[in-house]
Write a structure and sequence with these properties.
By secondary structure, this protein is an alpha+beta fold. The protein contains twelve helices and ten strands. The strands form three sheets. It has a four-stranded mixed sheet. Strands 2-3-7-6 form a four-stranded antiparallel sheet, with helices on one face. Strands 9-10 form a two-stranded antiparallel sheet. Strand 9 and strand 10 form a beta hairpin. It binds flavin-adenine dinucleotide. The site of flavin-adenine dinucleotide has 23 residues, from strand 1, strand 3 and helix 12. Flavin-adenine dinucleotide binds next to strand 1, strand 3 and helix 12.
Length: 386
Amino acid sequence: MFAVDRSRGYPQFTEEHDQLRKTVRDWCHKELAPHAAVWEAARLFPREVFDQAAQLGLLGIRVPEHLGGLGLDWWYTVCYAEEMVGCGLAGLTMALLVQSDMATPVILEIGDSYHQDNFLRPAVCGQAIAALGITEPDAGSDVAAIRTTARRDGDDYVINGSKTYITNGTRADFITLAVRTGAAGHEGVSLVLFPTDTKGYRVTRKLEKMGNHCSDTAEIAFDDCRIPARNLLGNEGEGFYYVMANFGGERLVGALTATAGAQRLLDNTAEWCRTRHAFGKNLMGFQTVRHQLVQYETELEAARQLCYRTVALVVAGDAAWREIAMCKLFCGEVANRIADRCLQLYGGMGYMDECEASRVFRDMRLITIGGGTSEIMREILTKICL
Ligand SMILES: Cc1cc2nc3c(=O)[nH]c(=O)nc-3n(C[C@H](O)[C@H](O)[C@H](O)COP(=O)(O)OP(=O)(O)OC[C@H]3O[C@@H](n4cnc5c(N)ncnc54)[C@H](O)[C@@H]3O)c2cc1C
C-alpha cells in the first residue's frame, strides 16, 4: 500500500535474509501461483511441491547441515513464512509449514540419531511427508484428554484409536503422534513417530473444508498398529510437555503468515480502491475509505512488531510463552477482522469466488482455531499474566 520497507529497523535481516526472501518470492510467483485455481479446485496440490520446497532448503531452515538442513536462524523462518503468502494458496503454505515447523522440530529437539536419520532427514529432503497427530474427535483444545492408546508389548507399542483434522493426513508418510501410554490426564501422554505403512492404519475420511482448499485434511484410525518402542520420542509420560513446547513454533509461524496474508490482501485492496469508482470518484477519494486503510495498516504494523519482538526473544533462547500466545491471539484476531473489512471494500466482487478477498476471508478463519483457539490463548495468558 505504501512504499515502505516493512522489515526495516531490524538489523537481524541481512542481505542473506533478503536473498532467501527473493528465492521464496520467485518460486511462489513462477511455480505456484499460476496453478492456484486448479489446485484449489482439485482440493490438493501435487506432491512434487514438497520436493521443490526441499530443494530450496525450506523444509529444514533451522535444521543443522549435518542433518540435511540449512542450519539458519529463526529470522530466515520469518522470511520464508512471510513470503509464502505470495503463492496465494494458504492451504499449500499450511501443508509445508506443518512439515517444516509443526511435525518435525520436536524430532530435532528431543529425537535421537535413529529418529533423526529415519524421520527428520527424509522430511527435510522432501522424501517423506510429515503430519502432526494430536487432535481427536473427543479432544482438541483439551490435549490432556486424548484417548488414542499405545500399549507396550515387548519391544513394540500397539496403538488403537483415531485422530481428526490432520493436515497432510491423506498422504503423510509418518505422523508425529500424541498417544496415551499411562493413566488419564496429562502425565499419561507420550509422543511417538508413527510410519503410515504400518498394518492396521487407515485414512478413514478426507474432510471437506470452508477454506485452505488445496491442502488435505483427514480423519485417521489405528487398529492394533504395532510400531517399534524405539519410535518413542523423549521419555514416556512427558509427551504433553513436548506437545506444548512444540506448539510455540507452530503458533509463531501461524501468526506470521496470518499477518503477512492480511497485509497482502490490504495492499491489493488499496489498489482496488484506487481504481474502483462510485459517485464520480474512486473509492480512495472517500475519507472514510482512506481512514479505514491506514487504520488496518497500523494494526498490521503492531501485529508484525509483536511477532518480530517474539522472534527476537526466541532467538535469544527465551521460550516466550507469553508473547507467543499474544501473537497467536492478537495477529489471528486482527487478520480475521481485516480480511472481513477488505472483503467489504470489494463490495459484490468481494463475495465472488474469483476474488482474492473471498478466498482470504475463508482461509483466514482458521487462524483463530487451528493450533490452539483464541479462547485457549486467553486461558494461557490468564495463567501467565494474572
Ligand atoms: C483446517 C484444520 C487443520 C488442522 N490441522 C491439525 C493437525 O494437523 N493436527 C492436529 O492435531 N490438529 C489439527 N487441527 C485441529 C485444531 O488444532 C483444533 O481444531 C483446535 O485445537 C480446537 O480443537 P477442537 O476443534 O476440538 O475444538 P474444541 O476444543 O471442542 O473447542 C470448541 C470451542 O470451545 C472453546 N473452548 C474449549 N475449551 C475452552 C476453555 N477452557 N475456555 C473457553 N473456551 C473453550 C474453543 O475455543 C472453541 O471455541 C486442525 C484443525 C483445522 C480446522
